[in-house]
Amino acid sequence: MSDPTTAATSSGRTSHAVTIPNSINMVALLGPSDEHLALIERAFDADVHVRGNRVTLQGEPAEVALAERLLDELVTILRTGQGLSAETVGRAITMLRAESEEARPSEVLSLNILSNRGRTIRPKTLNQKRYVDAIDKHTIVFGIGPAGTGKTYLAMAKAVQALQDKRVNRIILSRPAVEAGERLGFLPGTLTEKIDPYLRPLYDALHDMVDPETIPKLLAAGTIEVAPLAFLRGRSLNDSFIILDEAQNTTPEQMKMFLTRLGFGSRIVVTGDVTQTDLPSGQRSGLRVVEGILDGIEDISFNRLTAHDVVRHRLVGEIVAAYDQFDDKHRNGGPR
Questions:
Q1: What is d(CA 211, CA 90) in angstroms, rounded to the nearest whole number?
Q2: Which of 52, 108, 118, 208 has the fewest Cβ atoms within 10 Å of its own Cβ atom?
Q3: Which string of DSSP letters, residue by residue, matches 145-209?
């Protein structure tokens, strides 16, 4: 953007004018029916006036400066060829309010992991970017957080990316079938019918990332394997990208068994939510205890996501946050 002009008013408020480059479509920047502009006006204690490609900001100096930074970030995102949505603008505002110097919102929101059928998978929060970066840098990564934070979805995207780039020869996706006590032989039906209900969420994510018609071929060839945790016992998994989902439902012994399947040229990502354990009462979760055992070991990374990283419907994040507050109050002796 071109150099802004700033003037101070007698009330201590600042008037700040910014010229948007001619190469930027103002409708794309401001949103359909000025939807993005309305978001910006609600988010900052500043008045925003637009005339042509000139935006004037009036308000408290700190708020005006932050709004100007937001415009710069949005222009940078548009220059990458990525469109803007109300969700993108809202997430950029949240990141700027967090005042993190680690990464600019435009760096987080324009990082492409995987594209398929016109859809691009990207991190949508700073914690998600940290998680994705950790997967690139470490052999074993733990993604711990509530539902909807993208921990499994992003791990799947990184697995498909690694397979496409020929950095691994296969993807192995696993979950503990905890409701069946892993004794799948007692369930009715064929093996596929027995395990399908437990693994269906992994198949759903896979269909978003790989052309559906190729999935049966990849499964038949063993290039992609989806299996209950019990089926990994005794194996050494080389040149593989291995994901263990719902890891809060593993026992400490199962977690140890899984982690020691790691072979040469492989990566492991373990995801789970320690607040949603379905293990029988009195049984410890392997995900709860593993950080105390492995913390500090080089090439192992623990990453935590929170309600602020929920990327499902807006209400999901609010529901998760409300339950967290309830649990905190209960732990501190408050009424249930």
A1: 31
A2: 118
A3: --TTSSHHHHHHHHHHHHHHTTS-SEEEEEE--GGGTT-GGGSSS-HHHHHHHHHHHHHHHHHHH
